[in-house]
Design brief:
This protein has helices at residues 19-27, 35-41, 58-70, 89-95, 112-120, 140-152, 170-178, 206-209, 241-250, and strands at 3-8, 30-33, 49-52, 74-79, 103-107, 121-122, 128-132, 156-160, 187-192, 200-205, 218-222, 228-230, 233-235. It is α/β, with parallel strands linked by helices and 251 residues long.
C-alpha cells in the first residue's frame, strides 16, 4: 500500500519545519504542491521528483498525489503553514474514496497565525479566531458575517489572504466592518514573508491598517479591546493583571 503524507511546512524557512515533516519529505518518492511550496520543500529534499500545479488547480494536484500513492509510491503533498489550516488535508480526504486505499498521514506545521504572532510579540494569548479574506471559495457575504461576528464578540483575529491584485479593497472593507464594534485605535499588526528573506512587521491601529497596501504574503492581526502595544510589540493580556496586583499588594 502506498502512503500519502500531507505535510505542513510552516511559514518558509527550514528551521520552522518539524522533525516529522523533514523525515516525511526525505522518505517521499514524489513531492506535490503549489510551486512556491515545493521550492520550500527542496531545502530538505533537493533531489526528489516533484509535481506542481498553479493556484486554482488544487483538485488536479490532489488527484495526482492520490493516484501516485495508489500506485505504491510514498508521496508528500506539501502545504505552507499547517496542512489543515486552509491546506490540502480536507480535500485529500474528500477525494480519497475514489482511489485504491492508501495510508494517509497528516503532519501538522506552524501556521502563520502562530509564527507571525511570535514576530509581533504576543497578540493571541487570549481567545482568537482566524479568517481568510479570499473569496475564491467562500462568498464575500459570508466572510463579512464572520468578520462582524468576530468583532462583536471581541475576538483577537488573525487574517489570512488580506489583499491581492484582484482584491484591492478587501482589507479596507474588513477593517471598516470591524470598526462597527471595535475602536479605531484598536492595536493591530501585520507580518510579511514570515520566516523568509525580506521579513517585515508593523504595529499600529485599526484605523491605520485600513489604509495600508498589503499582499498575499502578509498575515494581519487585529487585537481585542484589551490588546496593547508594549515596546513596539503587540500584546493581548490573558487576565493575569488581578494576580499581579495581588502579588504587589502582598509585598
Amino acid at each position: 500500500m502506498g502512503k500519502l503524507y500531507i505535510v505542513g511546512l510552516g511559514p518558509g524557512n527550514a528551521e520552522y519545519m518539524t522533525v516529522e515533516a523533514v523525515e516525511a519529505l526525505k522518505e517521499a518518492d514524489l513531492v506535490c504542491g503549489y510551486p512556491v511550496y515545493v521550492e520550500l520543500a527542496k531545502q530538505v529534499a533537493p533531489d526528489t521528483e516533484t509535481f506542481t500545479t498553479p493556484m486554482t488547480r488544487e483538485v488536479e494536484r490532489c488527484r495526482a498525489a492520490l493516484s501516485e500513492a495508489a500506485s505504491g509510491k510514498s508521496v508528500a503533498m506539501v502545504c505552507s503553514g499547517d496542512a489543515g489550516v486552509y491546506g490540502m488535508s480536507g480535500l485529500i480526504y474528500e477525494l480519497a474514496g475514489e482511489y485504491s486505499p492508501v495510508e494517509i498521514v497528516v503532519i501538522s506545521g506552524v501556521t502563520a497565525a502562530l509564527s507571525g504572532g511570535a514576530v509581533l510579540g504576543a497578540p493571541l494569548t487570549h481567545d482568537f479566531c482566524v479568517i481568510s479574506l479570499s473569496d475564491l471559495l467562500t462568498p464575500w457575504e459570508k466572510i463579512e458575517k464572520r468578520l462582524e461576528a468576530a468583532a462583536e464578540a471581541d475576538f483577537c483575529t488573525a487574517i489570512y489572504n488580506p489583499m491581492s491584485h484582484k482584491r484591492r479593497d478587501h482589507l479596507n472593507r474588513a477593517c471598516r466592518i470591524m470598526m462597527k464594534h471595535k475602536s479605531p485605535q484598536t492595536v493591530c499588526g501585520y507580518v510579511r514573508n514570515i520566516g523568509r528573506e525580506g521579513e517585515e512587521s508593523w504595529v499600529g491601529t485599526l484605523e491605520e491598517l485600513a489604509d495600508l497596501e498589503l499582499d498575499m504574503f502578509c498575515t494581519v492581526f487585529i487585537g481585542n479591546s484589551q490588546t496593547k502595544e508594549i515596546d513596539g510589540k503587540m500584546v493581548t493580556p490573558r487576565g493575569y493583571q488581578k494576580r499581579i496586583e495581588e502579588e504587589r499588594q502582598g509585598r
